[in-house]
Write a structure and sequence with these properties.
- One of its GO terms (cellular component) is cytoplasm.
- This protein is an alpha/beta fold.
- The protein has 3 domains: 1-84 and 174-184, D-Maltodextrin-Binding Protein, domain 2 (3-Layer(aba) Sandwich); 87-167, Periplasmic binding protein-like II (D-Maltodextrin-Binding Protein, domain 2, 3-Layer(aba) Sandwich), CATH 3.40.190; 186-307, Alpha-Beta Plaits.
- Helices cover 30% and strands 31% of the residues.
- The chain contains 10 helices and 15 strands.
- The protein has helices spanning 13-21, 35-43, 63-70, 107-112, 114-120, 132-140, 151-156, 207-216, 250-262, 288-302, and strands at residues 3-7, 28-32, 49-56, 60-61, 76-84, 87-92, 102-105, 125-128, 146-149, 160-167, 174-181, 193-200, 222-229, 237-244, 265-273.
- Strands 1, 2, 3, 4, 5 and 11 form a 6-stranded mixed sheet that branches. Strands 8-7-9-6-10 form a 5-stranded mixed sheet. It has a 4-stranded antiparallel sheet with strand order 13-14-12-15, sandwiched between helices.
- Helix 2 (35-43) runs parallel beside helix 3 (63-70).
- The N and C termini lie far apart (62 Å).
- Bound molecules: 3-phenylpyruvic acid.
Length: 307
């Protein structure tokens, strides 16, 4: 049975997402304490794949995931899941809100319950943990008084009780998760795919505009752009781009070759079906047929068959 890593310990949102991402096959889910460790386990072939949190509608990208994807051997995303996010706040039985002096959770969870904390636990000191489930373990072990967790974590900690449930500053907050593998056969194009890449543009005037032009000229819909510093050079950045389409699509392949010529570095991070299955809107000039016809025309010109 394939082993699949997830950001643990058991009871995280990522475990829930990884279960959804592997629902089609029998898998043994294996917890790792950090995203970089889970991805390294994929690289070293200890596991087949890893489920990782990617971005959140409230707090933005999970930078640990972005950085870990581009450091080390190449990896690619093969599937995407989006989960609605609401939290339970768990305490040891008998703890009242007034007795909570420390509240623990993953930084992205804390960011999504700031107003709730200001209202209900204004005096509490925040302790950040590697995951929401790790925060529940801290409370169980007596190292923190309250934990902001995924509802599933409550089942794992029968000694803890909710101080509140369904907590979320933004009612419709969502988090996007990816299933990451070593490069191999790509998922088949479905017409409702997303492609992710990371590029380092040359340090010159207009470089980012030119990167974006490669996409816009081909009618490619950009769904996310994020920058992360290149660790060893201050003021230079790696851009993470997500856009509609599959690398097997002519317009995407064409854009990628343009980027490859133009950029210092291009890392392909996968083409995979979008969680919402919404089909890409492709303008006529960027359709498969338009690309095929233009290539046929070029071949004719090159063969000297056109007047
Ligand atoms: O810590 C978790 O449970 C995670 O899976 C990371 C996370 C944290 C907050 C919101 C969504 C995902």
């Amino acid at each position: 049975m394939p082993r699949i890593a997830f950001l643990g310990p058991p009871g995280t949102f990522t475990e829930q997402a990884t279960r959804a991402l592997t629902a089609d096959f029998d898998a043994e889910l294996v917890p790792f304490d950090t995203v970089p460790n889970a991805l390294d386990a994929v690289r070293s072939q200890d596991v087949l794949a890893a489920g990782v949190p990617m971005e959140n509608s409230v707090e933005g990208s999970v930078s640990a995931t972005l950085d870990a994807l581009t450091m080390g051997e190449p990896l690619v995303a093969v599937a995407e899941a989006v989960l609605p996010i609401r939290f339970h706040v768990l305490v040891r039985r008998g703890t009242t809100a007034g007795a909570v002096s420390t509240v623990a959770s993953h930084p992205h969870a804390i960011a999504q319950v700031r107003s709730w904390l200001d209202r209900h636990l204004p005096e509490a000191r925040v302790l950040t943990t590697s995951s929401t489930a790790a925060a529940a373990a801290e409370v169980d072990g007596g190292h923190a008084d309250a934990a902001v967790v995924a509802p599933v974590a409550a089942e794992r900690h029968p000694a803890l009780v909710p101080l509140d449930t369904g907590v979320a500053d933004v009612a419709d907050a969502r988090t996007r998760f990816l299933l990451i593998r070593r490069p191999g056969a790509l998922p088949e194009p479905t017409g409702a795919d997303r492609t992710s890449i990371a590029v380092v543009a040359h340090d010159e005037v207009g470089a980012l505009t030119e990167v974006l032009s490669e996409l816009s000229l081909r009618g490619i819909n950009l769904s996310r752009i994020e920058s992360r510093p290149i660790k060893d050079r201050l003021g230079e950045y790696r851009f993470f781009l997500d856009f509609d389409g599959h690398v097997a699509d002519a317009r995407i392949g064409d854009a990628l070759t343009g980027l490859r010529r133009r950029c210092e570095e291009v890392r392909f991070l996968g083409s995979y079906p979008k969680a919402d299955r919404s089909p890409a809107s492709v303008r006529p000039a960027a359709s498969e047929q338009a690309f095929r016809k233009s290539m046929e025309w070029l071949a004719e010109v090159r063969a000297g068959r056109l007047a």
